TrEMBL record, chain A:
Biological processes, Gene Ontology terms: cell division
Protein name (record): Alpha-endosulfine
Keywords, alphabetical: Cell cycle, Cell division, Cytoplasm, Mitosis, Phosphoprotein, Protein phosphatase inhibitor
InterPro entries found in the cross-reference section: Endosulphine
Any one Gene Ontology cellular component term annotated for this protein: cytoplasm
Subcellular localization(s) per the UniProt record: Cytoplasm
Signal peptide range: none
A Pfam cross-reference name: Endosulfine
Origin: domain of life: Eukaryota
Stretches for region Disordered: 1-35, 80-117
Lineage per the UniProt record: Eukaryota, Metazoa, Chordata, Craniata, Vertebrata
Function: Protein phosphatase inhibitor that specifically inhibits protein phosphatase 2A (PP2A) during mitosis.
Molecular-function GO term, any one: protein phosphatase inhibitor activity
Basic and acidic residues biased stretches: 10-35
Automatic annotation (TrEMBL), chain B:
PANTHER family: PROTEIN PHOSPHATASE PP2A REGULATORY SUBUNIT B
UniProt-listed InterPro entries: PP2A_PR55, PP2A_PR55_CS, WD40/YVTN_repeat-like_dom_sf, WD40_repeat_dom_sf, WD40_rpt
Cleaved signal peptide residues: none
GO molecular function: protein phosphatase regulator activity
Protein name in the entry: Serine/threonine-protein phosphatase 2A 55 kDa regulatory subunit B
Family: Belongs to the phosphatase 2A regulatory subunit B family.
One CC-aspect GO term: protein phosphatase type 2A complex
Superkingdom of origin: Eukaryota
Sorted UniProt keywords: Repeat, WD repeat
Keyword Ribonucleoprotein in record: no
Length: 117, 449
């Protein structure tokens, strides 16, 4: 904050103190929540609410499968079980190679809606 | 005055009327209601769910014998609209969830509606059959063919009454036109065309033609790394068939005029509220993303819903909304946990009443909010089985933000964020509302004297 001409240094100091106190008292709830989030996840993306979310939104439903990986993993682990999907079968991560047994059944709901019951 | 009781909005007292669906301890995902829509007369009420099913309710004729019961809604037709699919070429799983249902105005005895999932729009015809032909010559009543050599006389088949049967048939399937996920469909006031909008593009269709559509908006950047916003909702103007609006994830609304060019990438109007830079945070853009946009019935205003507010804009003023209503501002100090549990991405819808004087939107804990634009009064109501005695008046609810909690208030930390009211509908001319609470559909009406 620029010092008004003619104002003594003492007055300027007081102004600055006041501003500091004000800033500490009036941190918006949003900023406080942001600080909480950044404390939990220090590596959170630099772009606020940016294209990471958008890309995730656009890729909804995308499944990944590499037949090369799949067949090599099968060959390597001839006698062992392939690592199977965790509780969330829709999420494929790490060493998990999707197998036909893992895929959620693509059934259609032939059951009538309960709203019509 | 009714202190602390009664919802004093133009003297409307809301009462429980009906609830559809079952009380389950665990909700089956397929039963979650994903869209609710009255038709243009309010005679029919359609719901779509995550399982791809549509259920249509019809209002019963009011009976002179029971003047206290205004017409109830009972099941009229139900059908499987969409099935789960897998696009092998793109390795993409396509949900059967019905994102939107939109009715066409009635032009003959049959009813028509559009239903859409993420990729495919379908036109359904719902029609009644209450007569059937009897007395064929070449087949008997079971449909088995008769031996022609045994037929000695001829008769004329006649139409005989039968039990009412309501059939739903898919008349058109509009497929393969969307690379991204469809969020909106809107029937044009010309009744000949409609639009479908996905994250990056909007297409215009003619109801008669399924193998072609016109792309009218394309915001896909040449380089996807430059993507900064997506289309979140779109709607045609209720009277001007050349005009439509679409909203974005950055909190802006664009109004386009199809007469200016074939591709409406340049807007005719751009609605955006200036942001206070001192308020900017990590959450700002996420909570400003518009989840729904609706024209008023008059066509003079648009209403938008973002995470914490509902705004009303005058079409003639682009630089700020004319009204802003706080839906649940107390959530501002919960944004960190709402981000962690993904609730901050919940897409709430909003609706106008028939006269554009009251607006309604949902919240958490099965609460929903109404704002009277004239009196500036607002009310919070709850859709719950506890208030489901016939004609029971709904008691206003209040969330306690801090300090001492009164007896019938609920504190922010006690709110159930899994009970979200995302979809509601308001009868076109009467005070009858439909509120979807996860897998249950509540119907409320104003008190009949």
């Amino acid at each position: 904050m620029a010092a008004v001409l003619g104002t003594g240094a003492r007055a300027e100091e007081t102004e600055q103190e006041k501003q500091d106190v004000q800033e500490k008292e009036t941190v918006t709830p949003e900023r406080a929540e942001e600080a909480k989030l950044k404390a939990k996840y220090p590596n959170l993306g630099q772009k606020p609410g940016g294209s990471d979310f958008l890309m995730k939104r656009l890729q909804k439903g995308q499944k990944y499968f590499d037949s090369g990986d799949y067949n090599m993993a099968k060959a390597k682990m001839k006698n062992k079980q392939l690592p199977s999907a965790g509780p969330d079968k829709n999420l494929v991560t790490g060493d998990h190679i999707p197998t036909p047994q893992d895929l959620p059944q693509r059934k259609s709901s032939l059951v009538t809606s309960k709203l019509a019951g | 005055s009714l202190a602390g009781f009664g919802n004093l909005m133009q003297d409307v007292l809301w009462c429980f009327s009906q609830v559809k669906g079952t009380i389950d301890i665990g909700v089956t995902e397929a039963d979650i209601i994903s869209t609710v829509e009255f038709n243009h007369t309010g005679e029919l009420l359609a719901t779509g769910d995550k399982g791809g099913r549509v259920v249509i309710f019809q209002r019963e004729q009011e009976s002179k014998n029971q003047p206290h019961r205004r017409g109830e809604y009972n099941v009229y037709s139900t059908f499987q609209s969409h099935e789960p699919e897998f696009d092998y070429l793109k390795s993409l799983e396509i949900e059967e969830k019905i994102n939107k249902i939109r009715w066409l105005p009635q032009q003959n005895a049959a009813y028509f509606l559009l239903s859409t999932n993420d990729k495919t729009v379908k036109l359904w015809k719902v029609s009644e059959r209450d007569k059937r032909p009897e007395g064929y010559n070449l087949k008997d009543e079971d449909g088995r063919l008769r031996d022609p050599s045994m037929i000695t006389t001829l008769r004329v088949p006649v139409l005989r009454p039968m039990d009412l049967m309501v059939e739903a048939t898919p008349r058109r399937v509009f497929a393969n036109a969307h690379t991204y996920h469809i969020n909106s469909i809107s029937v044009n006031s010309d009744y000949e065309t409609y639009m479908s909008a996905d994250d990056l593009r909007i297409n215009l269709w003619n109801f008669e033609i399924t193998n072609q559509s016109f792309n009218i908006v394309d915001i896909k950047p040449a380089n996807m790394e430059e993507l900064t916003e997506v289309i979140t909702a779109a709607e045609f103007h209720p009277h001007h068939c050349n005009t439509f609006v679409y909203s974005s994830s950055k909190g802006t609304i664009r109004l386009c005029d199809m007469r200016t060019s074939a591709l409406c990438d340049r807007h005719a109007k751009f609605f955006e509220e200036p942001e206070d830079p001192s308020n900017r945070s990590f959450f700002s853009e996420i909570i400003s993303s518009i989840s729904d946009v609706k024209f008023s019935h008059s066509g003079r205003y648009i209403m938008t819903r973002d995470y914490l507010t509902v705004k009303v804009w005058d079409l003639n003023m682009e630089n700020r909304p004319i009204e802003t209503y706080q839906v649940h501002d107390y959530l501002r100090s919960k944004l960190c946990s709402l981000y962690e549990n993904d609730c901050i991405f919940d897409k709430f819808e909003c609706v106008w009443n028939g006269s554009d004087s009251v607006i309604m939107t949902g919240s958490y804990n099965n609460f929903f909010r109404m704002f009277d634009r004239n009196t500036k009064r607002d009310v919070t109501l709850e859709a719950s089985r506890e208030n489901s005695k016939p004609r029971a008046i709904l008691k206003p609810r209040k969330v306690c933000v801090g300090g001492k909690r009164r007896k019938d208030e609920i504190s922010v930390d006690s709110l159930d964020f899994s009970k979200k009211i995302l979809h509601t509908a308001w009868h076109p001319s009467e005070n009858i509302i439909a509120v979807a609470a996860t897998n249950n559909l509540y119907i409320f009406q104003d008190k009949v004297n």
